Amino acid sequence: MFYPIAGRLLMVAALALLLAGKPLAVTAEEAGEAAATSGPTIADIRAPLYITDVGQGNTARMVEMLLRRLGEWEMVRDDTGKADALDGYETLVIGVGGSTKGLGAAGLDVGSERERTEALLEKAKEMGIPVVGVHIGGEPRRGELSDPFNALVCEHATAFIVYEGGNQDGFFTEIAEEHEVHLVEVEQKPETGTALAELLRKAAGEE
Known about the structure:
- The protein is of the alpha/beta class.
- It folds into two domains: 5-38, no CATH class; 42-203, Rossmann fold (3-Layer(aba) Sandwich).
- It is built from eight helices and six strands, in the order ααβαββααβαβαβα.
- The chain has helices spanning 5-19, 28-38, 59-70, 100-105, 110-127, 146-156, 171-179, 191-203, and strands at 49-54, 75-77, 91-96, 131-135, 159-163, 182-186.
- α7 (171-179) links the parallel β5 (159-163) and β6 (182-186).
């Protein structure tokens, strides 16, 4: 039998109380706490979108371009956006892949970029909004510089979309399975935009 999400959360909370030897009565506050700890799901992926780049590999620009060809979603892109800019947005979209040239042009180094990324992810968690990671760059956006950024974003994502050329060794698959991330692998780079558009449409009940 299918139960709505709220009902399932009440059942889980009740079971936890039973195992702890407490009464089965579940208050609204306890149910709310259960919902908060469960985190956002792919059903929560909706506009307005805040799009940024992690690693400065030019992925965010490509994500925005692909999305604008596919629909009329409200979005803003800031490649070096800060955590305090997330207020008012429903989803954080992160294009990920490191570039030494890109970092230098943005006046960033690996340390400061990681700090910025961690702050963004923490703010999204605090706000309860989903994070969608996108890796388009394939093999050139893997390796010693990129993979720490790739792993950080994938670990904290609600959903992660990857072009298969960047996942031939199963790097993202392994992380997604460990952290229960909804992973979408596509055969062609432009299909990363299509995959994100499909998530947005499904959340809006359009598919």
